[in-house]
Amino acid sequence: MKTNFFFSKLLSVLLTLFGISIFVFVVLRVIPGDTITGTLGTDTGVLSPEQIDVLKQYYGIDKSLFGQYTSWMGSFLKGDLGFSFTTGLSVAKLTQSSLAVTAELAILGTVLGVIMGIAVGMFSARKPGSVRDFAGQLFGLLALAIPGFVLSTTIVAVMANKFHYFPNGLEYMTPWRNPWMNFQQMMFPALVLGIAVAAPVMRTTRSALLETVDKDFVRTAHGKGVPARRVQFKHVLRNSLIPIVTMTGIQFGYLLGGAVIVEKIFALPGMGRQVLDAINHREYATVQSSVMIFAILFVTINLVTDLIYRQIDPRIK
Amino acid sequence: MTSRVKEKSWLHYYLRSTSGVIGAILVFLMVLLSLIAAFKLYPHDPVLQDIENTLKGPSGKYWFGTDQFGRDIFSRCLDGMRRSMIVSIFSVAIATVVGVTLGILGGYFGRWFDSVVVRMSDVIFAFPAILLALAIVNSLGNSWIDTSLAIAVVYTPIFIRVARGPVLSTKEMDYVKSARILGFSSPRILVSHILPNVLAPIVVQIALSLSWAILTESGLSFLGLGTQPPNASLGLMVSDAQALAAFAWWTLAFPSLFITIAVVGLNLVGDGLRDSLDPARRNS
Amino acid sequence: MSLLSIKNLSVETAYDSRVLVNNVSFEIEKGEAVGVVGESGSGKTLSALSILGLLPRGVQISSGSILYNGKDLVTCDSETLRSIRGREISMIYQDPMTALNPVMKLGDQLREVIDSHQSNNSDINQMIFDAFKEVGIPDPERAFHSYPHEFSGGMRQRVMIAMALILSPELLIADEPTTALDVTIQQQILALVLEERRKRNMSMLWITHDLGVVANLVDKVIVMYAGRIVEIGSVERIFNAPQHPYTAGLLASLPKASDKNRTRLASIPGVPPKPWLVGDSCAFAPRCSRAIEQCKYTKPELANAGGTSSACFNRVGA
User: Fold this and answer.
1) Chain A residues within an 8 Å CB radius of B129
2) Per residue in C10-50, pLDDT tens?
3) Is residue B49 part of a domain?
4) Across chain A, how many H-helices and E-strands are there?
5) Is the ipTM beyond the 0.95 threshold?
6) Which listed residue, of A232, B45, C50, C289, carries a Cα 20 to 30 Å from C258's Cα?
7) Which residue in A256, A278, A295 sits closest to A85, CA to CA?
């Protein structure tokens, strides 16, 4: 029964991905065809004939709309994600390194955010309606309302311009080359993203805890003489996990979007910046493939989250 | 069947929610400021430069100080708020109408139509909001209509989902089933039985979506993909402030404050509405 | 000295001080089974929850003392209370569907009781298997590794009983544990509890709204109405010669096998008042067929009349 379910879910996901590819195709095809051909050899024009050919293949220029879609999809599925003429690299190559950066950022941000969110949520839920609860909720509200770009700009203004400390101004270092520098460069952006994640996680944690604490089985646990601390973790928190995990999964996906802005401000060479640069340089191929990859990531994460919480809740099996 | 016990209206409950009231005040304030800008009643022209007074702090003449071109930040904030309001209201209006219609029709009539609707919203859900808005704006253009359309597309699926849920559960209720058996026409059932249940979550979602729309719109402007200079836009002002904030804090503080207040206000209103419209009204 | 002695217990809402349980006093002797009977809202459940300090959020004990072996459970420190729960005094609850942790294996939930009290037992697992067997769970090994949702209500209730009795408490508090079960299962559970009580000579406090259930179950009956005790007596005396008109009414409303077909079940007209709204009068007076003038402006107290206790100015049979 479990494998059955997995396969039907997989099928559903594939269908969605198919829909996504069509959607991406449509959205970006709103751009008139000659603009694309126009950019194929324009001002950045250091393209070799082979490179132009690759792009033509990729776009399926001069084919019907349907033909364009199939040639794009065909290329994409074969691993040909197009060509970026500003960098002179294939999009696939570009994406390899940029994806790693965004992934690291997203993971750090999520972990940070979940820890903050659960901590503040637990803090608030202990005494609902109290001052500490109010403080916790205020934190959640502000974390939600203050835009990531505002927070980032403030950090940059204070750190870089006032204190002259700005590791992100230096060349980006991957964790394998220089772990300490990498950490410093990831620190602020991960914090900004983490705060954005913490807000909904905190809300979910708080309401889940409050709801669970009134449940009968918590009373039974107390009534058995289980120490209060253990009741908090093994009974209350453990049963609140499902909505928290679900929310985390959703947030991880949104994080990918928030990464776009944060990567720009903190000069991280991730996928978000890749898309932005591509947009500014009118590199439609790069935009198209990158957006497609984002979507695939998002869908995959949702699938994984779904599978995880089925593991946590023995009732769904 | 009328109730003999006088039911307190939602407004009564709403007014008892402190956060709801505060939110309403904040939103009202922002709308007021936007209207002031709409009627061009700001103290200075937002695009008028005053070269002799660049980057001056708040003063009697320029309440929020001036930017790098000597433009009055207060007036620019008002105008920027106006733009944000227009875009968010317009985009959420579209998203609501389209999303709710699709959600209700899909949920009620079901079968293949519903599957298509759900699949379509899953597709859109697969994209992080900013990214999708970026991509669409990239294709369409920078005008406020393009931006609004982009944001509308991004937030339509949530209205589909919010509208569809209650429809699915209400559809199974006995009183709806009996109405169908009795031969009531579909539109009539939809309007008199289904719609009232759907209304509350939709209203709450409108408030929340407005707050997200403002964040998205200012995010787009920050990236340079929304309102173009010299026109005032809150996101753009923050972007300009990146280089200036260290020694001219007012260039960052005030536009940020405006965005935050608008978002906080709308969120609180959403919370207040949620608490007052939910039949299980808790007295905290 | 009694095992448990409740004196002048009052419970009210925390926020607006509405009285829910009004000046309740009774004792439970070692080995004695006491039944508390009353309608919903009579305060019987809250009184029981007060003993182990399990009142829900927003409700608190406002006055009184609960003496267990000399210790006052109302004022003692939390660690003392915790050590008594599950080991010396145990409780089972009304709804078996929600009373167990859904994400914890049953074996672990029982082990938790043992671990919480550090009973030095070498083979905890064996203890748990034995406990399961004793309450009639067919496959203890499988049950050990199962989750609550894999079992029916009746089975879950058995698990709860096993959990409550595994450390052989002196007193078992049962809050309507059979109300949510099918009638046939009810009988099984009742029989199980009776048997356990007999084997262990355990004291018991049994809460119910059904007077019929306590007939063969308890030694002493306490009748509650609108937050107060209106009658206390031995089970024989209560059933044969009830003094309070409410008790008499409850008895009359029990369906009897001897009823001829189609006689209407006698019921007491009206509904019980909210405990906090009853002033200085008898709470039952508005519904009482024996009400006299005094009932309306004086609160009747429990008074001994012929070796038993009832709060009434115009007792049945007087």
Assistant:
1) 254, 257
2) 999 988 889 999 889 999 999 999 999 998 888 899 999 99
3) no
4) 13, 2
5) no
6) C289
7) A278
